[in-house]
């Protein structure tokens, strides 16, 4: 009789499951959701059982047995497996790579769900040893015993590695003498308890109405919480989370960036009296696995994480919150190109949960669905605590030419606010010292040798660095073309920091960008100094534009506001408006009324009239009408087929074949556009090209992609290029 067949997802770039027979005698049975060790070619790989079938299309004689079952019970339940299958089908991505993206690294590598922790324990005879005498004879043994005594008699191997480096060489001798014992236990770390809960502030009318409107017991429902910056959206989240936890269920909160996590964790701990299970890419693998485990077994009532946390299994799901839902960080840009916001909606629907999307600048896709009545649209139009909205004003650079990047009105405003005890934020979304280096003689620019891009000047390290591929070289002093002197062109955060230190250094100047906060803990330290007022002048990138609260911040200066006005991306003006509104919202959140000065060389551009005259809502209205007329999202669906190779012609030839195959499918409702070179045709030494698919009918678009995928995988040229399908792309770069 034919044995049951295991349908296994393996981390390989092939859009299929692989069939195996169960392990031979002695191994436990494998259910869907369990990991198995399987032979794969000459390798032994860890796979996940997605299903069990009665038969296989592969001849029985060719079916191999799995080598072992790694989990006594399924790691993932049916709803988790359904989500993974949906992701693979929707994003047209190999199921094994989807599974790999969803599991913590230790589980991907075959480690147990509950890892073993090895400990050394001091025995009674070991505790009685005279350390002074032992130190003279065997100092390493004495150091180990001393470390165990300081630790209370028992310590993990990891703790001893840190407290007494090299201790392991003395271990055997101490075991033989009976002074220490070695034991193993499973890691069942619990959620950390914190101090008593603190009461929240009284709700204003808008917050109370929003809280009343959102039902936690009505099944799946999407709410767009559209609140101006400082309107108290987080307080609404907190009240909802409290109610969910009181019902014995779990809440999942997604935030766009790691930088927002520590501040939010502190606030959640104060209000809820418990530490959330935190999941993000900067955590050590062991900590991520512990948080994943706590979410899965239900011991963590609250899970807080960035993009990948959308996959975490939940024992008792009750609510999903996506904060700053418009943020592009929710879209993975490499490998499996999923949108965590969109998967949160899919997951909420599958589990019958309410989903709350919050933003002061909602994406146009979300606004469209809310305005059409598909989602509930709740507005918080006023700031919490009675704070007034900031005043926005343009500084015309044609009238007030900048000096060292700052116009005279901006310099005067900084002086005025600092004299009044206020805090200032100078915003420029460009790190480094200057965007590039220019020759004073021939005008040549410092170009990257691997990309169609210019090198950015970093004077602190004396390097030219490409922010696209990471290439770096020594900072030029003279032009390689003509030998003339070179000079930095334009401004970045580092150059503005030096200007501000020179003029306002006595007030404390702090730069916050991805360069200055690279070391662990640097971001928290910088934000604490900013929040306390120790740093009165802040200069930074979009890392400062969202989610942070600086009580004394009175003035925001947007230095280079024109970058998005003439973008080749149809989302350029939407992103520019979001960026400015978000950073402007940092100003005047308490007693001081905020002031926002925007430097622009195009003061007459209609974008500024819309933004200053009607805020983000008016810009969104205009952008939606433009998109409706042009047939761009949210009035159509896009998929982008990317290809790259070190040979200039290969991507174009591969995509031309793909375009011919797509057009042969004769799906009239889908436009096939291209192939064309990518806006940056060469990046990191690879030539890149794009093929775009556009349709108002999502079902027909996916039908075409599903038909195209096997043909692409079988295409002879596919092995000579790197290619990927990006469904619902947010970057056409």
Strand order of the largest sheet: 11-12-10-13-14-9-15
First and last CA, distance: 55 Å
Q: Per the principal axes of the C-alpha atoms, what is the gross shape?
A: globular
Low-confidence stretches: none
Protein structure class: alpha/beta
- Helicity range of the residues? 25-40%
Count of alpha/pi helices: 21
Report what the structure shows.
With 733 residues, the protein is α/β, with parallel strands linked by helices. It is 32% helix and 23% strand. It has 21 helices and 30 strands. It has a 7-stranded parallel beta sheet with strand order 11-12-10-13-14-9-15, sandwiched between helices. A 6-stranded parallel beta sheet has the order 16-26-25-17-24-23, sandwiched between helices. Strands 2-1-4-3-5 form a 5-stranded antiparallel beta sheet. Helix 5 (131-137) runs antiparallel to helix 6 (139-150). The two termini are 55 Å apart.
Give the arrangement of secondary structure elements:
Layout: E1 5-10, E2 18-20, E3 35-40, E4 43-53, E5 68-69, H1 78-90, H2 95-102, H3 105-108, E6 116-122, H4 124-127, H5 131-137, H6 139-150, E7 154-156, H7 157-163, H8 168-176, E8 180-186, H9 205-213, E9 221-227, H10 233-246, E10 250-254, H11 261-272, E11 277-279, H12 285-297, E12 302-305, E13 317-323, H13 340-351, E14 354-359, H14 364-371, E15 376-380, E16 391-396, H15 408-419, E17 423-427, E18 436-439, E19 456-458, E20 463-465, E21 472-474, E22 486-489, H16 493-504, E23 509-512, H17 522-532, E24 537-540, E25 553-558, H18 572-584, E26 595-600, H19 606-630, E27 637-645, H20 650-664, E28 670-683, E29 686-695, H21 698-714, E30 722-727
Parallel strand pairs: 9-14, 9-15, 10-12, 10-13, 11-12, 13-14, 16-26, 17-24, 17-25, 23-24, 25-26
Antiparallel strand pairs: 1-2, 1-4, 3-4, 3-5, 6-7, 6-8, 18-22, 19-20, 20-21, 27-29, 27-30, 28-29
Helix pairs in contact: 1-2, 5-6, 9-10, 18-19
